[in-house]
Amino acid sequence: MSFQSDSPQIYTPQAFHRQAHDALGNPQIRSNFRRAMDGLMSKRREAFGDWDLETLRELGANIRLRALAKLPDLLEQLETNCQANGIRVHWAEDGEQACRIIRDLCEARGARHVIKGKSMVSEEMHLNDHLQAAGIEALESDLGEYLVQLNEQTPSHIIMPAIHLNTEEISDVMHDRTGTERTTDVDYLTAAARAQLRERFMAADVGISGVNFAVAETGTLCLVENEGNGRMTTTVPPVHIAVTGIEKVVEHLRDVPPLYALLTRSATGQHVTTYFNMISGPRKPGERDGPEEVHLVLVDNGRSSIYQDNELLDTLRCIRCGACMNHCPVYTRVGGHTYGTTYPGPIGSILMPHLMGLEATKDLPSASSLCGACGEVCPVKIPIPDLLVRLRKEAVGEGRGNVEGAGAKRDRKEALAWKGWQWLATHPGAWRAGTGVAGKFRTLSPSRLGTWTDCREAPKPAGTSLHALVKQHRRKVGREDEQ
Question: What's the domain range around 440?
Answer without folding.
Answer: 428-482
